[in-house]
Amino acid sequence: MIVDCDRCEVRGDACQDCVISVLLGAPSNVEFDAGERRAIDALAGAGMVPRLRLVSPDTEPRSGAA
C-alpha cells in the first residue's frame, strides 16, 4: 500500500486524526507492506492509534474510514 498524502482529498481536515500524522508527522509519500498494514490495523483496532484516513481521488475509502 502506498499512501500519498499530497493526493489525499481530506488532507488538512483529517490529518490530525490519521495514523500517518500520528506515527510519522505529515510525510508526502509512505509505502507499507502487508505486514506493516496488518500491524497498523491491529493498533487502530485496539484504539492505540487512529485509523488511516486517506481518501484519494481514484480509490474508495475503506469501510470504517472517514
For the sheet with most strands, the description reads:
2 strands, antiparallel
Global mean pLDDT: 76
| Global structural class | mainly alpha
Enumerate the strands of the largest sheet in spatial order, edge to edge or round the barrel.
1-2
Strand content: 5-15%
**Total strands:** 2
H-E order? EHEH
Report helical residue fraction. 25-40%
Task: Give the helix tally.
Answer: 2
The backbone outline, from C-alpha atoms, is globular
Poorly predicted regions are none
Rg is 11 Å
The termini sit apart by: 18 Å
Description:
With 66 residues, this protein is mainly alpha-helical. The protein has a domain of 44 residues. The protein has a two-stranded antiparallel sheet. The mean pLDDT is 76.
